[in-house]
Write a structure and sequence with these properties.
The chain is an all-alpha fold. The chain has 9 helices and no strands. It folds into 2 domains: about 70 residues, Arc Repressor Mutant, subunit A (Orthogonal Bundle), CATH 1.10.10.60; about 130 residues, Tetracycline Repressor, domain 2, CATH 1.10.357.10. The termini are far apart. It comes from Halobacterium hubeiense. GO terms for molecular function: DNA-binding transcription factor activity; transcription cis-regulatory region binding.
Length: about 200
């Protein structure tokens, strides 16, 4: 398997190895066509070990979702808290909506969209996504509040801004995987920061 920053380069625990194998299989085949056998073909150990830890496809996919969201949460704010709020906000958006067409990032987005459709009818999946989305929203809100207090941002409603950015980012990720058209959402977000958030310097 190609090195994937979401997983250890040489995973020394069974869970990480199974999660990486499941991720690769799901990115290639999608939920409907995914089988445990396809996962086992990407797993260096025996298929029986997979069944020892998981009862079936749905259980292993829910575990994959939790694993991915844990990894994303840990890497959500790569910039230290003592950096100015504008830099922190742009870094957060860089992490969520990178420019370019990075293959591994697209695989990650593809897998998340596949799993998110399960949340329509499955409460466990929905709970995971609710927790992740609220974590992202709170990260944005905290940055906006800090920017207002420091004078870097205007006196905006932090909740409304966080909701707006969350909706825009979620829609962009979904569209990048499900429709064939070029969008400039990140550019518009940068313009939004410039025109609506940054405090106007007094002359």
């Amino acid at each position: 398997m190609a090195n994937n920053p979401l997983f250890p380069e040489d995973p020394d625990d069974t869970r990480a190895a199974i999660m990486e194998a499941t991720f690769d299989a799901l990115a290639e085949h999608g939920y409907s066509d995914l089988t445990i056998n396809q996962v086992s073909q990407r797993f260096a150990k025996s298929e029986g070990l997979i069944f020892y830890h998981y009862d079936g496809k749905d259980e292993i996919l829910l575990e994959l979702l939790k694993y991915l969201l844990e990894r994303v949460q840990k890497g959500r704010l790569p910039i230290a808290d003592d950096v100015d709020p504008e830099t922190r906000l742009r870094a957060l958006l860089d992490n969520i909506l990178p420019t370019g067409d990075e293959h591994q990032k697209r695989d990650y987005e593809k897998v998340l969209v596949e799993l998110r459709t399960r949340a329509i009818h499955n409460e466990d999946y929905r709970e995971c996504f609710n927790r992740s989305q609220m974590g992202f929203r709170e990260s944005v809100r905290e940055i906006i509040v800090a920017g207002i207090e420091s004078g870097d941002f205007r006196e905006v409603d932090p909740d409304s801004v966080a909701d707006f950015i969350l909706a825009l980012v979620s829609g962009e990720i979904f569209d990048r995987i499900t429709v064939d058209r070029h969008r400039t959402v990140r550019t518009e977000l940068d313009d939004y920061i410039e025109d609506r958030l940054l405090a106007v310097e007094e002359s």
